Amino acid sequence: MKGLYFQQSSTSEEITFVFQERENLPVTEDNYVKLQVKACALSQINTKLLAEMKMEKDFFPVGREVAGIVLDVGSKVSFFQPGDEVAGILPLDSEDPGLCEAVRVHEHYLVHKPEKVTWTEAAGTIRDGVRAYTALHYLSHLSPGKSVLIMDGASALGTIAIQLAHHRGAKVISTACSLEDKQCLERFRPSIARVIDVSNGKAQVAESCLEETGGLGVDIVLDAGVRLYNKDDEPTVKLQLLPHKHDIITLLGVGGHWVTTEENLQLDPPDSHCLFLKGATVAFLNDEVWNLSNVQQGKYLCILKDVMEKLSTGVFRPQLDEPIPLYEAKVTMEVVQKNQGRKKQVVQF
Asked: What Gene3D superfamilies does the record point to (predicted)?
């Protein structure tokens, strides 16, 4: 039985993906479930976080967002039985790669998959669903009538976040990084209040948002990264398309919430003073907090269940690429790790 792993170079941050033969899974005990994997979604691996959590090893398992059939359960498992269709996210310290025919996982990381939801939909949506819920529900308290700016709305996360915001009755503004993304966002139903095309680098995001909100500013911002410096100082064209941190602060309304994916965000005293005057908050989107805190396990399972329910009822309609076979996972994962893909990539078994 083969599984996909990655190995990090000791001299650089570059990582290599390799297939390795695995031993048979141990006997399923206690609260563990043996799962036959039917689909596994591919996401970028945060090697820096793994290093900070002291989880470095020679070969690290790849693939965590899985959907499959329960084959066997331990004696203390109370939620599942053999034959159940489930989905979940393997923990950071999982010994098993999701990109394998079978995995062993604690029952608290799984929920039942509705019959109407396909394997690829379940695996391909579950993590972005958790991220969208974390950002909009737990970090910014989304409610009907709020205005929300979702940066890069045509991305896998952006798509789910827009759909969740619309479902909660919010007014959505979004940015598009290309003409194709703009056309994709304009097809959304319910329609997005304004799509701001930033592909030519000339769009004024702050001005557009203030105009759309009558000068009040938006209540919630979910960014896809921000520029910390002037355009001339940024190293790549892609970074130059991102809004500057001052633009985000400018477009925030009174009591607004800025949810950022920029883990190295630097705020100068004038930035902090401006946020203080607005009574605004900044929160960091790190969906791994659910994996790192056992205290929050009940909330986490509620989110996973709700993501599956919204998939089943059609609230979530993920942007998935065509499913790929396991033997193409290595090459595809290299593309995903470089953040070169747009739609979610899912391996189907």
From this structure: Medium-chain alcohol dehydrogenases, catalytic domain
pTM of the shown model: 0.91
Of 90-94, 232-236, 321-325, 327-331, where does mean pLDDT reach its minimum?
232-236
- In order of 82, 104, 179, 203, 314, the CA distances from 175 in angstroms are 45, 40, 11, 10, 24
Neighbours of 181 (CB within 10 A): 22
> What distance in Å separates the CA atoms of residue 308 and residue 88, rounded to the nearest whole number?
10
Contacts of 112 (CB under 8 A, 6+ apart): 80, 84, 85, 86, 305, 308
Q: Is 331 helix (H, G, I), strand (E, B) or coil?
A: helix
Preceding peptide of 190 cis, ω within 30°: yes
CA–CA separation, 314 vs 77, rounded Å?
31
Q: Is 15 exposed, middle or buried (0-12, 13-18, 19+ CB in 10 A)?
A: middle
Long-range contacts of 208-212 (CB under 8 A, 24+ apart): 208/173, 209/149, 209/173, 209/251, 210/250, 210/251, 212/147, 212/173
Of 193, 136, 78, 194, which is closest to residue 316 (Cα–Cα)? 136
**For residue 228, which amino acid is it?**
L
Helix (H, G, I), strand (E, B) or coil at 229: coil
Given pLDDT bands bounded at 50, 70 and 90, which one contains residue 338?
A: confident
